[in-house]
Structures are given as C-alpha cells and as structure tokens.
Amino acid sequence: MQALNPKTIAAPFGRYSHGVTTRGGGRLVLTSGQLGLRPDGVVPTGALDQARQCFANCAAILAEAGLGPGDVLRINAFVTDRAHFPDYMAARDEFLTGIEVLPASTLVIVSGFTRPEFLVEVELTAMERPR
User: Per its UniProt record, what PANTHER family does this chain match (predicted)?
Assistant: First the structure.
C-alpha cells in the first residue's frame, strides 16, 4: 500500500492520506456502516465512546477476515453534528495508532441515523494483500 499525498495540494487535515493505492491482487473486505452499539445492545453516551465502539465493531469484522487496521484503505464516517468532529477524530486516531501508511478518510455531517441516540457511524474498506 502506498499513500498518495501530492505536494501540489494542501496537506491532509489530520491522520489520513488523500489517496491510497495498492499493487497486486488481494481480497477486498468492506464493512457495513457500524454504529456505536455494544454487543449487549447498549449505546454509549457521547460521540467519543460511540466512535470508539464503531471502530471496535469494525476491528472485529476485520479480524474475522484475518485483517487489521493496517489493511484499511478507506474510512467513511458520519456524525450528526459538527461538534462531534474532535471526538470522532480522537477515536479514529486511536484506531490508527502505529499505522505507517494511513488510509484515505472522509467525514460527513448528517441529519441523523435510524435511532436518535446514535451520533456516529463508521464504515471501512480494507484489502488483504499477499504477505
């Protein structure tokens, strides 16, 4: 995997790459949007804890496929208020701790989700590459 961060455009706002490319074939893994919902059905209060749970859910899906955060090519995330941006970023940065080539990343502010208590949703695209 290679990061694509051209010097001819502004640098990324945070810990992500403007683009990512891969070489060679590999198995593609996509998650559905994951909400901040714990296995016991509890929804944590606050955007930080919900974002952490979203990434934990995504990590579990990746692990099921034998992958981890270093295999993520793209993160798409959604929050219900601009005020949740810093908490989401903190959780994303925790998830990417130690990752050398950062994935592409998009954050969108939306009007809401299926239930009003949900504040954050995260989906990932990852690729298993030949090792």
Answer: BLR7761 PROTEIN, YJGH FAMILY PROTEIN
pLDDT one digit per residue (tens) for the chain, 131 residues: 788 888 998 898 888 888 888 777 788 889 999 999 999 999 999 999 999 999 999 999 999 999 999 999 999 999 999 999 999 999 999 999 999 999 999 999 999 999 999 999 999 999 987 66
Which domains are present in the chain? 53-131 (3.30.1330.40)
Whether this prediction's pTM lies above 0.85 is answered by: yes
Contact yes or no for 100/15 (Cβ under 8 A): no
